[in-house]
Every structure is written in structure tokens, then in C-alpha cells.
Amino acid sequence: MALSRQALAKRKRMTIVALAVLALGVAVALVLSAMRDTVVFFYSPSEVAARKSDPALNLTERNFRIGGLVEGGSVKKLEGGKTTEFAVSDGAELLTVRYTGHLPDLFREGQGIVAEGRLDDHGQFIASEVLAKHDEKYMPPEVADALKKAGRWKEGEVTP
Question: Is the pTM of this model over 0.70?
Fold first, then answer.
């Protein structure tokens, strides 16, 4: 049974549309796959403590960010001063952070920081970068949210 000229044209258009949708789907999948390795998630110390053994997060093999306040009395210089170890708190949990390199000038105990790195096999956060806030009133949004969840900081309040 031969198809009419209109039916052939419709079939050709549907084939082109199907191929275009398939190509778009492949392109989106490739872009999402490429972005997956560059996306850096933020977790509070409480979230890290609760989910550090979650195989879906893979916190020992993926870089992620943590944020909170540098716990008072926790800053220690190691290895001749090149490495610094300190604890970051969101009010509910403490996470030990080890960083080798020059800390920002504004880094000090009681201040909010954001650090990027990954957990080692012992559950210690090995930071590759540490960011400190840049004025008295600014708090990184992720840190403020984590502190708010822990009930340790409220909007408009001077940072603890």
C-alpha cells in the first residue's frame, strides 16, 4: 500500500522532530554529565556528621564546601606552622579541618568561614581552600543558613 504524498511528508517531519528531540536529549545528558564533576555542594558540620558514611554522597572522593564558625581555642599550628588544624561548628556539631597554606587575614576564632575540600579516611576535613568573611556584618549565606538551622544565629544579629 503506497502512502500518499501528504502522509510521506508527515512521516518525514515526524522523523526530523524525533531526531531533533533525541539530539537535544543527548546534548543535555552530556552537559549534565560534564557539570556533575564541577558542582560543589555545601554542607554544615551537622550534615557532614549525619551523612559522612552515605555512599551516595561519597564525601571522601568528592570536593564539597563546609561552613560555620571557627571554634574558640581549636586553632593549632602543625608542621612548623605550614599546616593549621581547627574546628568548625554550626552550634550542634564540630568538624575538624586541616589546611596547609596561608590562611586569609580575616581568619580567626569565632568568625564564619567556608572551606572547600574533602573528608579523609578518618573523617577529618582536608581543606584545599579556606574563605573568611570580609566585614563585621557579612555572613556567607550558606553559613548563615546552617547557623539558623542549628538555632545559633538570627537575622540582624551581630555574628557570634
Answer: no
